[in-house]
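Reader question, answered in our methods column.
A reader sent in the components of a multi-part assembly and asked whether the whole thing could be modeled at once rather than chain by chain. We filled in our standard form and ran it. Here is what they sent:
COMPLEX SIZE: two components
ENTRIES:
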Amino acid sequence: MIVFKKPHALSDVPLHYCPGCTHGIVHRLVAEVIDELGIEGKTIGIAPVGCSVMAYNYFECDMIEAAHGRAPAVATGVKRANPDNIVFTYQGDGDLASIGTAETVHSAARNENITVIFINNAIYGMTGGQMAPTSLPGQVTQTSPYGRDVNLCGYPVKICEMLAQLDGPEYLERVTVNNVKQIKNAKRAIKKAFQNQIDGKGFSLIEVISSCPTNWGMTPQAALKWIDEKMIPYYPLGVYKDRSAEKKEAEQ
Amino acid sequence: MEKKVLMKGNEAIAEAAIRAGCRHYFGYPITPQTEIAAYMAKRMPKIGGTFLQAESEIAAINMVYGVASAGLRVMTSSSSPGVSLKGEGLSYLAGADLPALVVNVQRGGPGLGGIQPSQSDYFQATRGAGHGDFHMIVLAPASVQEMAELTVKAFDLADKYRMTSMLLADGTMGQMMEPVALDDLQINPMPEKPWATTGTKMERKRNIINSLSLVPEELEQFNFARYEKYAKIEREESRAEEYRMEDAEICVAAFGIASRVSRNAVDAAREMGIKVGLIRPITLWPFPVDPFKRSLSTVKKYVSVELNMGQMIEDVRLATECRRPVTLCNRAGGMIPTPEQVLEAIKAAANGGENQ
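And here is the structure of the entire assembly that came back:
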Protein backbone atom coordinates (compact mmCIF):
# COMPACT_ATOMS: atom_id res chain seq x y z
CA MET A 1 0.00 0.00 0.00
CA ILE A 2 1.32 3.45 -0.95
CA VAL A 3 1.05 5.78 2.02
CA PHE A 4 3.06 8.72 0.72
CA LYS A 5 3.95 9.77 -2.80
CA LYS A 6 5.01 12.72 -4.87
CA PRO A 7 2.04 14.74 -6.12
CA HIS A 8 1.62 14.38 -9.89
CA ALA A 9 1.75 18.16 -10.36
CA LEU A 10 5.20 18.29 -8.75
CA SER A 11 7.96 17.52 -11.27
CA ASP A 12 10.28 14.61 -10.64
CA VAL A 13 13.45 16.70 -10.50
CA PRO A 14 15.79 17.68 -7.67
CA LEU A 15 14.88 21.10 -6.25
CA HIS A 16 17.76 23.58 -5.89
CA TYR A 17 16.61 24.99 -2.53
CA CYS A 18 18.92 25.14 0.49
CA PRO A 19 18.54 22.62 3.33
CA GLY A 20 15.87 23.80 5.74
CA CYS A 21 14.27 26.21 3.27
CA THR A 22 10.47 26.06 3.33
CA HIS A 23 10.01 26.64 -0.42
CA GLY A 24 9.96 22.87 -0.93
CA ILE A 25 7.08 22.47 1.52
CA VAL A 26 5.03 25.20 -0.14
CA HIS A 27 5.75 23.80 -3.62
CA ARG A 28 4.46 20.46 -2.42
CA LEU A 29 1.32 21.99 -0.91
CA VAL A 30 0.54 23.82 -4.16
CA ALA A 31 1.08 20.60 -6.15
CA GLU A 32 -1.11 18.57 -3.76
CA VAL A 33 -3.89 21.12 -4.11
CA ILE A 34 -3.61 21.07 -7.91
CA ASP A 35 -3.85 17.26 -7.79
CA GLU A 36 -6.79 17.22 -5.39
CA LEU A 37 -8.75 19.78 -7.41
CA GLY A 38 -7.93 17.93 -10.63
CA ILE A 39 -6.84 21.11 -12.41
CA GLU A 40 -3.30 20.35 -13.60
CA GLY A 41 -4.33 20.21 -17.24
CA LYS A 42 -5.73 23.72 -17.23
CA THR A 43 -3.39 25.38 -14.76
CA ILE A 44 -0.75 27.92 -15.77
CA GLY A 45 1.86 28.84 -13.16
CA ILE A 46 3.86 32.06 -13.23
CA ALA A 47 7.30 31.95 -11.66
CA PRO A 48 8.98 35.06 -10.21
CA VAL A 49 12.53 36.32 -10.03
CA GLY A 50 14.19 35.33 -6.78
CA CYS A 51 14.88 32.02 -5.07
CA SER A 52 11.88 30.39 -6.71
CA VAL A 53 12.87 31.65 -10.17
CA MET A 54 13.18 28.05 -11.36
CA ALA A 55 9.72 27.08 -10.13
CA TYR A 56 8.90 26.71 -13.83
CA ASN A 57 10.89 23.49 -13.70
CA TYR A 58 9.15 22.18 -10.61
CA PHE A 59 5.49 22.03 -11.64
CA GLU A 60 4.07 19.75 -14.31
CA CYS A 61 1.49 22.26 -15.56
CA ASP A 62 2.29 24.86 -18.21
CA MET A 63 4.63 27.47 -16.75
CA ILE A 64 5.75 31.01 -17.53
CA GLU A 65 8.77 32.80 -16.15
CA ALA A 66 7.99 36.48 -15.55
CA ALA A 67 10.20 39.53 -15.12
CA HIS A 68 10.93 40.62 -11.54
CA GLY A 69 7.72 41.65 -9.82
CA ARG A 70 5.59 41.41 -12.94
CA ALA A 71 3.96 38.02 -12.35
CA PRO A 72 0.52 39.44 -11.48
CA ALA A 73 0.51 41.46 -14.72
CA VAL A 74 1.55 38.40 -16.73
CA ALA A 75 -1.11 36.37 -14.89
CA THR A 76 -3.66 39.05 -15.78
CA GLY A 77 -2.80 38.62 -19.45
CA VAL A 78 -2.99 34.83 -19.30
CA LYS A 79 -6.30 34.84 -17.41
CA ARG A 80 -7.86 37.42 -19.73
CA ALA A 81 -6.70 35.40 -22.74
CA ASN A 82 -8.17 32.13 -21.45
CA PRO A 83 -10.55 32.67 -18.51
CA ASP A 84 -10.99 28.89 -18.20
CA ASN A 85 -7.35 28.47 -17.22
CA ILE A 86 -6.45 28.38 -13.54
CA VAL A 87 -3.62 30.86 -13.13
CA PHE A 88 -1.37 31.17 -10.12
CA THR A 89 1.71 33.23 -9.36
CA TYR A 90 4.39 32.15 -6.92
CA GLN A 91 6.40 35.12 -5.65
CA GLY A 92 8.81 36.12 -2.93
CA ASP A 93 8.87 39.27 -0.84
CA GLY A 94 11.34 41.23 -2.97
CA ASP A 95 9.37 40.35 -6.08
CA LEU A 96 5.86 40.93 -4.73
CA ALA A 97 6.31 43.57 -2.02
CA SER A 98 9.10 45.72 -3.45
CA ILE A 99 9.72 45.85 -7.20
CA GLY A 100 6.27 44.50 -8.02
CA THR A 101 4.21 46.42 -5.47
CA ALA A 102 2.20 48.24 -8.13
CA GLU A 103 1.37 45.01 -9.97
CA THR A 104 0.35 43.38 -6.66
CA VAL A 105 -1.84 46.24 -5.47
CA HIS A 106 -3.58 46.77 -8.80
CA SER A 107 -4.25 43.13 -9.59
CA ALA A 108 -5.81 42.95 -6.11
CA ALA A 109 -7.77 46.14 -6.70
CA ARG A 110 -9.12 44.71 -9.96
CA ASN A 111 -10.01 41.52 -8.11
CA GLU A 112 -8.26 39.71 -10.92
CA ASN A 113 -9.41 36.11 -10.77
CA ILE A 114 -6.00 34.63 -9.97
CA THR A 115 -4.27 32.92 -7.06
CA VAL A 116 -1.13 34.42 -5.55
CA ILE A 117 1.25 32.43 -3.37
CA PHE A 118 3.44 34.92 -1.52
CA ILE A 119 6.55 33.67 0.26
CA ASN A 120 7.62 36.11 2.97
CA ASN A 121 10.97 35.16 4.46
CA ALA A 122 12.07 38.71 5.25
CA ILE A 123 15.16 38.57 3.04
CA TYR A 124 16.44 38.46 -0.54
CA GLY A 125 17.66 34.89 -0.72
CA MET A 126 18.79 34.37 -4.31
CA THR A 127 21.16 37.36 -4.34
CA GLY A 128 22.71 36.36 -1.02
CA GLY A 129 20.76 37.88 1.84
CA GLN A 130 20.00 41.55 1.33
CA MET A 131 17.39 43.58 3.22
CA ALA A 132 13.87 42.89 1.95
CA PRO A 133 10.80 45.13 2.13
CA THR A 134 9.64 42.71 4.80
CA SER A 135 12.89 42.52 6.82
CA LEU A 136 12.14 43.19 10.48
CA PRO A 137 13.26 46.36 12.28
CA GLY A 138 16.76 45.70 13.53
CA GLN A 139 17.24 42.64 11.30
CA VAL A 140 20.85 42.20 10.21
CA THR A 141 21.29 41.51 6.51
CA GLN A 142 24.06 42.05 3.98
CA THR A 143 22.68 45.52 3.14
CA SER A 144 21.62 46.36 6.69
CA PRO A 145 24.79 45.15 8.44
CA TYR A 146 24.01 47.21 11.57
CA GLY A 147 20.42 46.05 11.64
CA ARG A 148 17.47 47.53 9.75
CA ASP A 149 17.32 51.13 10.91
CA VAL A 150 13.73 52.27 10.45
CA ASN A 151 14.87 55.91 10.45
CA LEU A 152 16.96 55.23 7.36
CA CYS A 153 15.08 52.46 5.57
CA GLY A 154 11.58 52.76 6.88
CA TYR A 155 9.32 50.02 8.16
CA PRO A 156 8.47 46.61 6.75
CA VAL A 157 5.59 46.34 4.31
CA LYS A 158 2.67 44.32 5.64
CA ILE A 159 1.04 43.08 2.47
CA CYS A 160 -2.07 41.39 3.88
CA GLU A 161 -2.90 44.36 6.11
CA MET A 162 -2.29 46.76 3.24
CA LEU A 163 -4.35 44.90 0.64
CA ALA A 164 -7.17 44.36 3.13
CA GLN A 165 -7.87 48.11 2.86
CA LEU A 166 -8.92 47.62 -0.76
CA ASP A 167 -12.47 46.77 -1.78
CA GLY A 168 -11.17 44.55 -4.59
CA PRO A 169 -9.57 41.38 -3.30
CA GLU A 170 -11.64 38.31 -2.47
CA TYR A 171 -9.38 36.54 -0.02
CA LEU A 172 -6.24 37.37 1.95
CA GLU A 173 -4.71 35.07 4.52
CA ARG A 174 -1.35 34.83 6.25
CA VAL A 175 -0.10 31.37 7.22
CA THR A 176 3.19 29.71 8.06
CA VAL A 177 4.72 26.28 7.59
CA ASN A 178 7.06 25.89 10.58
CA ASN A 179 5.30 22.86 12.09
CA VAL A 180 2.91 20.12 11.03
CA LYS A 181 -0.17 21.86 12.34
CA GLN A 182 0.72 25.05 10.49
CA ILE A 183 1.54 23.16 7.30
CA LYS A 184 -1.92 21.58 7.36
CA ASN A 185 -3.45 24.97 7.94
CA ALA A 186 -1.42 26.46 5.08
CA LYS A 187 -2.65 23.74 2.75
CA ARG A 188 -6.26 24.51 3.68
CA ALA A 189 -5.67 28.18 2.87
CA ILE A 190 -3.93 27.44 -0.43
CA LYS A 191 -6.72 25.11 -1.45
CA LYS A 192 -9.28 27.78 -0.65
CA ALA A 193 -7.31 30.27 -2.76
CA PHE A 194 -7.48 27.94 -5.77
CA GLN A 195 -11.12 27.00 -5.11
CA ASN A 196 -12.00 30.70 -5.04
CA GLN A 197 -10.58 31.05 -8.52
CA ILE A 198 -12.45 27.99 -9.78
CA ASP A 199 -15.63 29.53 -8.34
CA GLY A 200 -14.87 32.81 -10.12
CA LYS A 201 -14.61 34.75 -6.88
CA GLY A 202 -11.46 36.64 -7.75
CA PHE A 203 -8.12 37.60 -6.28
CA SER A 204 -6.83 35.37 -3.49
CA LEU A 205 -3.43 35.85 -1.89
CA ILE A 206 -1.88 33.51 0.64
CA GLU A 207 1.13 34.95 2.42
CA VAL A 208 3.33 32.18 3.76
CA ILE A 209 5.76 33.21 6.51
CA SER A 210 8.81 31.20 5.53
CA SER A 211 12.33 30.53 6.70
CA CYS A 212 15.71 31.23 5.14
CA PRO A 213 18.24 29.50 7.40
CA THR A 214 21.11 30.15 4.97
CA ASN A 215 20.73 33.91 4.87
CA TRP A 216 19.40 34.29 8.38
CA GLY A 217 22.62 32.51 9.47
CA MET A 218 20.76 29.89 11.51
CA THR A 219 20.29 26.17 11.62
CA PRO A 220 17.01 25.05 10.02
CA GLN A 221 15.61 24.31 13.48
CA ALA A 222 16.58 27.70 14.87
CA ALA A 223 15.05 29.33 11.79
CA LEU A 224 11.71 27.64 12.41
CA LYS A 225 11.84 28.85 15.99
CA TRP A 226 12.70 32.40 14.81
CA ILE A 227 9.46 32.39 12.80
CA ASP A 228 7.49 31.85 16.03
CA GLU A 229 9.55 34.26 18.10
CA LYS A 230 10.17 37.16 15.71
CA MET A 231 8.21 36.89 12.49
CA ILE A 232 4.72 36.00 13.68
CA PRO A 233 4.57 38.73 16.37
CA TYR A 234 5.25 41.25 13.58
CA TYR A 235 3.20 39.43 10.94
CA PRO A 236 0.21 37.95 12.80
CA LEU A 237 -1.32 34.90 11.14
CA GLY A 238 -4.94 34.81 10.12
CA VAL A 239 -7.56 35.77 7.56
CA TYR A 240 -7.33 39.44 6.60
CA LYS A 241 -10.13 39.48 4.10
CA ASP A 242 -12.80 37.04 3.03
CA ARG A 243 -15.37 38.87 0.99
CA SER A 244 -17.66 35.88 0.54
CA ALA A 245 -17.76 35.30 4.31
CA GLU A 246 -18.38 39.01 4.89
CA LYS A 247 -21.24 38.92 2.41
CA LYS A 248 -22.75 35.87 4.07
CA GLU A 249 -22.51 37.52 7.45
CA ALA A 250 -24.19 40.66 6.15
CA GLU A 251 -27.02 38.60 4.72
CA GLN A 252 -27.71 36.85 8.01
CA MET B 1 -15.06 51.15 -55.89
CA GLU B 2 -13.84 50.27 -52.45
CA LYS B 3 -15.33 52.13 -49.52
CA LYS B 4 -13.12 54.73 -47.91
CA VAL B 5 -13.63 56.21 -44.46
CA LEU B 6 -12.05 59.27 -42.93
CA MET B 7 -10.01 58.27 -39.90
CA LYS B 8 -7.32 59.48 -37.59
CA GLY B 9 -4.06 57.56 -37.87
CA ASN B 10 -4.37 56.30 -34.32
CA GLU B 11 -7.90 55.02 -34.96
CA ALA B 12 -6.77 53.31 -38.16
CA ILE B 13 -4.19 51.36 -36.14
CA ALA B 14 -6.82 50.28 -33.64
CA GLU B 15 -9.39 49.23 -36.24
CA ALA B 16 -6.80 47.39 -38.32
CA ALA B 17 -5.59 45.54 -35.23
CA ILE B 18 -9.12 44.37 -34.47
CA ARG B 19 -9.56 43.24 -38.07
CA ALA B 20 -6.25 41.37 -37.81
CA GLY B 21 -7.76 39.34 -34.99
CA CYS B 22 -6.32 41.20 -32.02
CA ARG B 23 -8.76 40.86 -29.11
CA HIS B 24 -6.50 41.99 -26.29
CA TYR B 25 -5.23 45.50 -25.76
CA PHE B 26 -3.41 46.85 -22.71
CA GLY B 27 -2.24 50.43 -22.38
CA TYR B 28 -1.62 53.45 -20.25
CA PRO B 29 -2.73 56.95 -21.21
CA ILE B 30 -0.12 59.14 -22.91
CA THR B 31 -0.34 61.84 -25.57
CA PRO B 32 -0.30 61.67 -28.61
CA GLN B 33 -1.55 58.10 -28.93
CA THR B 34 -4.48 57.98 -26.51
CA GLU B 35 -7.03 57.65 -29.34
CA ILE B 36 -5.85 54.06 -29.78
CA ALA B 37 -6.80 53.24 -26.19
CA ALA B 38 -10.06 55.17 -26.46
CA TYR B 39 -11.00 53.29 -29.63
CA MET B 40 -10.17 49.95 -28.05
CA ALA B 41 -12.09 50.82 -24.88
CA LYS B 42 -15.16 51.43 -27.01
CA ARG B 43 -14.86 48.47 -29.37
CA MET B 44 -13.34 45.59 -27.40
CA PRO B 45 -16.25 45.02 -24.98
CA LYS B 46 -18.62 44.84 -27.98
CA ILE B 47 -16.69 42.09 -29.71
CA GLY B 48 -15.80 39.92 -26.75
CA GLY B 49 -12.31 41.33 -26.47
CA THR B 50 -10.28 42.75 -23.61
CA PHE B 51 -9.44 46.40 -23.14
CA LEU B 52 -7.60 46.98 -19.91
CA GLN B 53 -6.08 50.24 -18.74
CA ALA B 54 -3.02 49.03 -16.89
CA GLU B 55 -1.57 50.62 -13.76
CA SER B 56 1.64 51.39 -15.64
CA GLU B 57 3.39 50.93 -18.96
CA ILE B 58 5.40 48.18 -17.29
CA ALA B 59 2.27 46.32 -16.26
CA ALA B 60 0.78 46.82 -19.73
CA ILE B 61 3.73 45.24 -21.52
CA ASN B 62 3.71 42.35 -19.05
CA MET B 63 0.01 41.77 -19.63
CA VAL B 64 0.95 41.64 -23.30
CA TYR B 65 3.57 39.04 -22.34
CA GLY B 66 0.85 36.98 -20.67
CA VAL B 67 -1.53 37.00 -23.64
CA ALA B 68 1.34 36.37 -26.05
CA SER B 69 2.30 33.36 -23.92
CA ALA B 70 -1.26 32.11 -24.36
CA GLY B 71 -0.75 32.33 -28.11
CA LEU B 72 -3.24 35.07 -28.96
CA ARG B 73 -2.73 38.29 -30.90
CA VAL B 74 -2.11 41.14 -28.50
CA MET B 75 -0.91 44.71 -28.56
CA THR B 76 -0.04 47.75 -26.54
CA SER B 77 0.59 51.30 -27.66
CA SER B 78 2.35 54.25 -26.16
CA SER B 79 4.48 57.25 -26.90
CA SER B 80 8.18 57.78 -26.33
CA PRO B 81 8.52 58.10 -22.52
CA GLY B 82 6.08 55.22 -22.13
CA VAL B 83 8.01 53.03 -24.54
CA SER B 84 11.14 53.56 -22.45
CA LEU B 85 9.22 52.04 -19.53
CA LYS B 86 8.24 49.10 -21.69
CA GLY B 87 11.89 48.42 -22.46
CA GLU B 88 12.17 45.74 -19.81
CA GLY B 89 9.19 43.86 -21.21
CA LEU B 90 10.44 44.20 -24.79
CA SER B 91 13.66 42.47 -23.78
CA TYR B 92 11.75 39.65 -22.03
CA LEU B 93 9.44 39.21 -25.03
CA ALA B 94 12.54 38.85 -27.19
CA GLY B 95 14.19 36.45 -24.74
CA ALA B 96 11.09 34.27 -24.61
CA ASP B 97 10.50 34.51 -28.40
CA LEU B 98 6.97 35.84 -28.03
CA PRO B 99 5.02 37.59 -30.79
CA ALA B 100 3.33 40.90 -30.02
CA LEU B 101 2.66 44.32 -31.50
CA VAL B 102 3.92 47.47 -29.81
CA VAL B 103 3.01 50.85 -31.25
CA ASN B 104 5.12 53.93 -30.58
CA VAL B 105 3.52 57.21 -31.66
CA GLN B 106 6.64 59.23 -31.04
CA ARG B 107 6.92 62.63 -29.38
CA GLY B 108 9.94 64.85 -28.76
CA GLY B 109 12.42 63.93 -26.04
CA PRO B 110 14.55 63.20 -24.12
CA GLY B 111 12.94 63.01 -20.71
CA LEU B 112 9.37 64.15 -20.57
CA GLY B 113 10.15 66.19 -23.68
CA GLY B 114 7.05 67.52 -25.40
CA ILE B 115 3.95 66.21 -27.09
CA GLN B 116 4.72 67.27 -30.66
CA PRO B 117 5.83 64.78 -33.32
CA SER B 118 9.33 63.37 -33.41
CA GLN B 119 11.38 60.54 -34.82
CA SER B 120 13.90 60.57 -32.03
CA ASP B 121 13.22 57.00 -30.88
CA TYR B 122 14.80 55.55 -34.03
CA PHE B 123 17.87 54.33 -32.17
CA GLN B 124 15.71 52.90 -29.38
CA ALA B 125 13.50 51.05 -31.86
CA THR B 126 16.21 49.74 -34.18
CA ARG B 127 19.09 49.22 -31.78
CA GLY B 128 18.42 49.38 -28.08
CA ALA B 129 14.83 48.84 -26.96
CA GLY B 130 16.07 46.95 -23.91
CA HIS B 131 18.99 45.00 -22.48
CA GLY B 132 20.60 42.11 -24.31
CA ASP B 133 21.13 41.16 -27.94
CA PHE B 134 17.83 41.44 -29.76
CA HIS B 135 15.88 43.16 -32.48
CA MET B 136 12.29 44.01 -33.13
CA ILE B 137 10.78 44.23 -36.59
CA VAL B 138 10.21 47.99 -36.97
CA LEU B 139 7.68 49.30 -39.48
CA ALA B 140 7.34 52.98 -40.36
CA PRO B 141 4.01 54.06 -41.87
CA ALA B 142 3.80 57.27 -43.93
CA SER B 143 0.02 57.58 -44.34
CA VAL B 144 -3.11 56.71 -42.44
CA GLN B 145 -3.70 53.94 -44.97
CA GLU B 146 -0.28 52.52 -44.13
CA MET B 147 -0.99 52.84 -40.41
CA ALA B 148 -3.71 50.26 -41.06
CA GLU B 149 -1.85 48.09 -43.57
CA LEU B 150 1.37 47.92 -41.58
CA THR B 151 -0.53 47.11 -38.38
CA VAL B 152 -1.85 43.96 -40.05
CA LYS B 153 1.56 43.24 -41.53
CA ALA B 154 3.16 43.70 -38.10
CA PHE B 155 0.95 40.99 -36.58
CA ASP B 156 1.73 38.62 -39.46
CA LEU B 157 5.48 39.15 -39.14
CA ALA B 158 5.39 38.87 -35.36
CA ASP B 159 3.62 35.51 -35.55
CA LYS B 160 5.74 34.28 -38.45
CA TYR B 161 9.01 34.93 -36.64
CA ARG B 162 7.86 34.70 -32.99
CA MET B 163 9.09 38.17 -32.10
CA THR B 164 7.87 41.67 -31.33
CA SER B 165 6.89 43.98 -34.14
CA MET B 166 6.96 47.70 -33.51
CA LEU B 167 4.94 50.19 -35.48
CA LEU B 168 7.04 53.36 -35.29
CA ALA B 169 4.79 56.31 -36.05
CA ASP B 170 4.89 59.88 -34.80
CA GLY B 171 2.47 62.43 -33.42
CA THR B 172 1.60 63.74 -36.88
CA MET B 173 0.78 60.30 -38.26
CA GLY B 174 -1.26 59.52 -35.18
CA GLN B 175 -3.30 62.70 -35.19
CA MET B 176 -3.88 63.44 -38.88
CA MET B 177 -7.00 62.33 -40.72
CA GLU B 178 -7.01 60.77 -44.16
CA PRO B 179 -9.35 58.51 -46.14
CA VAL B 180 -8.64 54.84 -45.48
CA ALA B 181 -9.79 51.73 -47.33
CA LEU B 182 -10.09 49.09 -44.64
CA ASP B 183 -12.07 46.48 -46.52
CA ASP B 184 -9.23 45.27 -48.68
CA LEU B 185 -6.75 44.79 -45.86
CA GLN B 186 -5.13 41.43 -46.46
CA ILE B 187 -5.94 39.39 -43.34
CA ASN B 188 -4.05 36.10 -43.08
CA PRO B 189 -4.97 33.32 -40.67
CA MET B 190 -2.85 33.11 -37.54
CA PRO B 191 -0.35 30.25 -37.59
CA GLU B 192 -0.61 27.35 -35.12
CA LYS B 193 1.19 27.99 -31.83
CA PRO B 194 1.90 24.61 -30.26
CA TRP B 195 4.35 26.26 -27.86
CA ALA B 196 1.67 28.39 -26.16
CA THR B 197 0.84 27.94 -22.47
CA THR B 198 -2.86 27.14 -22.64
CA GLY B 199 -2.87 24.15 -20.28
CA THR B 200 -1.58 20.65 -20.95
CA LYS B 201 -5.09 19.11 -20.79
CA MET B 202 -3.03 16.16 -19.50
CA GLU B 203 -2.43 15.34 -23.16
CA ARG B 204 1.02 16.76 -23.77
CA LYS B 205 4.18 17.64 -21.89
CA ARG B 206 4.08 21.05 -20.26
CA ASN B 207 5.06 24.15 -22.22
CA ILE B 208 7.42 26.63 -20.57
CA ILE B 209 7.74 30.28 -21.59
CA ASN B 210 11.07 31.49 -20.30
CA SER B 211 14.07 33.70 -20.95
CA LEU B 212 16.30 32.48 -18.11
CA SER B 213 19.26 30.37 -19.14
CA LEU B 214 22.01 30.02 -16.56
CA VAL B 215 24.33 27.84 -18.64
CA PRO B 216 26.36 30.23 -20.80
CA GLU B 217 26.96 27.67 -23.54
CA GLU B 218 23.20 27.24 -23.90
CA LEU B 219 22.43 30.95 -23.72
CA GLU B 220 25.00 31.55 -26.43
CA GLN B 221 23.27 28.98 -28.65
CA PHE B 222 19.91 30.69 -28.09
CA ASN B 223 21.47 33.97 -29.16
CA PHE B 224 23.06 32.37 -32.22
CA ALA B 225 19.73 30.83 -33.23
CA ARG B 226 17.91 34.12 -32.77
CA TYR B 227 20.45 35.93 -34.93
CA GLU B 228 20.09 33.29 -37.67
CA LYS B 229 16.41 34.14 -37.65
CA TYR B 230 17.28 37.85 -37.79
CA ALA B 231 19.58 37.22 -40.79
CA LYS B 232 16.70 35.53 -42.61
CA ILE B 233 14.45 38.49 -41.82
CA GLU B 234 17.10 40.87 -43.14
CA ARG B 235 17.23 38.88 -46.38
CA GLU B 236 13.49 38.47 -46.85
CA GLU B 237 11.52 41.19 -45.12
CA SER B 238 13.20 44.54 -45.71
CA ARG B 239 10.99 46.96 -47.57
CA ALA B 240 11.36 50.43 -49.02
CA GLU B 241 9.62 52.70 -51.47
CA GLU B 242 11.78 54.27 -54.19
CA TYR B 243 10.54 57.48 -55.74
CA ARG B 244 12.11 59.05 -58.87
CA MET B 245 15.33 57.18 -58.20
CA GLU B 246 16.00 55.90 -61.79
CA ASP B 247 18.63 58.53 -62.67
CA ALA B 248 18.97 60.24 -59.30
CA GLU B 249 22.29 61.89 -58.46
CA ILE B 250 20.98 63.14 -55.14
CA CYS B 251 19.11 60.73 -52.90
CA VAL B 252 16.92 61.87 -50.07
CA ALA B 253 16.40 59.25 -47.35
CA ALA B 254 13.39 59.77 -45.14
CA PHE B 255 10.69 57.73 -43.41
CA GLY B 256 7.27 58.47 -41.99
CA ILE B 257 6.16 62.09 -41.96
CA ALA B 258 9.64 63.24 -43.05
CA SER B 259 9.22 61.27 -46.30
CA ARG B 260 6.03 63.15 -47.14
CA VAL B 261 7.71 66.50 -46.69
CA SER B 262 10.68 65.23 -48.69
CA ARG B 263 8.53 64.02 -51.57
CA ASN B 264 7.28 67.57 -52.14
CA ALA B 265 10.84 68.86 -52.05
CA VAL B 266 11.98 66.18 -54.52
CA ASP B 267 9.23 67.19 -56.95
CA ALA B 268 10.15 70.86 -56.61
CA ALA B 269 13.84 70.12 -57.17
CA ARG B 270 13.05 67.95 -60.19
CA GLU B 271 11.19 70.92 -61.69
CA MET B 272 14.37 72.91 -61.24
CA GLY B 273 16.24 70.23 -63.18
CA ILE B 274 17.99 68.59 -60.23
CA LYS B 275 18.22 64.81 -60.59
CA VAL B 276 16.96 63.83 -57.16
CA GLY B 277 14.99 60.90 -55.83
CA LEU B 278 13.73 59.53 -52.53
CA ILE B 279 14.27 56.24 -50.75
CA ARG B 280 11.66 55.75 -48.06
CA PRO B 281 12.46 52.88 -45.72
CA ILE B 282 9.24 51.11 -44.71
CA THR B 283 11.08 48.63 -42.51
CA LEU B 284 13.56 50.45 -40.27
CA TRP B 285 14.74 47.13 -38.92
CA PRO B 286 15.64 45.34 -41.07
CA PHE B 287 16.99 48.46 -42.78
CA PRO B 288 16.49 48.25 -46.56
CA VAL B 289 20.15 48.08 -47.55
CA ASP B 290 19.61 46.92 -51.14
CA PRO B 291 17.97 50.02 -52.60
CA PHE B 292 20.77 52.12 -51.13
CA LYS B 293 23.43 49.78 -52.53
CA ARG B 294 21.83 49.89 -55.96
CA SER B 295 21.56 53.66 -55.82
CA LEU B 296 25.34 53.98 -55.58
CA SER B 297 25.54 53.49 -59.36
CA THR B 298 24.07 56.97 -59.95
CA VAL B 299 23.89 58.81 -56.63
CA LYS B 300 26.68 61.19 -55.66
CA LYS B 301 25.25 62.53 -52.42
CA TYR B 302 22.67 61.54 -49.86
CA VAL B 303 20.51 63.75 -47.67
CA SER B 304 18.94 62.19 -44.60
CA VAL B 305 15.80 64.05 -43.56
CA GLU B 306 14.76 63.34 -39.99
CA LEU B 307 12.76 64.71 -37.06
CA ASN B 308 15.66 64.18 -34.66
CA MET B 309 19.32 65.06 -34.28
CA GLY B 310 20.43 62.52 -36.90
CA GLN B 311 19.77 58.86 -36.18
CA MET B 312 18.78 57.06 -39.39
CA ILE B 313 21.71 58.84 -41.04
CA GLU B 314 23.94 56.21 -39.43
CA ASP B 315 22.09 53.44 -41.25
CA VAL B 316 22.30 55.38 -44.52
CA ARG B 317 26.08 55.61 -44.06
CA LEU B 318 26.29 51.91 -43.20
CA ALA B 319 24.10 50.90 -46.15
CA THR B 320 26.24 52.96 -48.54
CA GLU B 321 29.40 51.87 -46.72
CA CYS B 322 30.37 55.54 -46.36
CA ARG B 323 31.22 55.68 -50.04
CA ARG B 324 29.34 58.96 -50.59
CA PRO B 325 28.80 62.03 -48.43
CA VAL B 326 25.60 62.04 -46.40
CA THR B 327 24.21 65.30 -45.05
CA LEU B 328 21.55 65.77 -42.43
CA CYS B 329 18.48 67.92 -42.89
CA ASN B 330 16.60 67.92 -39.63
CA ARG B 331 14.40 69.53 -37.04
CA ALA B 332 14.06 68.28 -33.49
CA GLY B 333 12.08 68.65 -30.29
CA GLY B 334 8.70 68.36 -32.01
CA MET B 335 9.45 70.56 -35.03
CA ILE B 336 8.96 69.35 -38.62
CA PRO B 337 11.23 70.34 -41.52
CA THR B 338 9.43 72.31 -44.25
CA PRO B 339 9.61 71.33 -47.93
CA GLU B 340 11.60 74.53 -48.45
CA GLN B 341 14.20 73.45 -45.90
CA VAL B 342 14.53 70.07 -47.59
CA LEU B 343 14.72 71.73 -51.01
CA GLU B 344 17.56 73.93 -49.75
CA ALA B 345 19.37 70.83 -48.49
CA ILE B 346 18.90 69.16 -51.91
CA LYS B 347 20.17 72.28 -53.68
CA ALA B 348 23.16 72.47 -51.37
CA ALA B 349 23.95 68.83 -52.08
CA ALA B 350 23.57 69.41 -55.84
CA ASN B 351 25.89 72.43 -55.72
CA GLY B 352 28.46 70.56 -53.70
CA GLY B 353 28.11 73.22 -51.05
CA GLU B 354 28.03 70.93 -48.07
CA ASN B 355 30.53 68.14 -47.96
CA GLN B 356 29.43 66.25 -44.89
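What stands out: Chain A has ten helices and nine strands. Chain A has one domain: 23-251.
Send us your own complexes using the same form.
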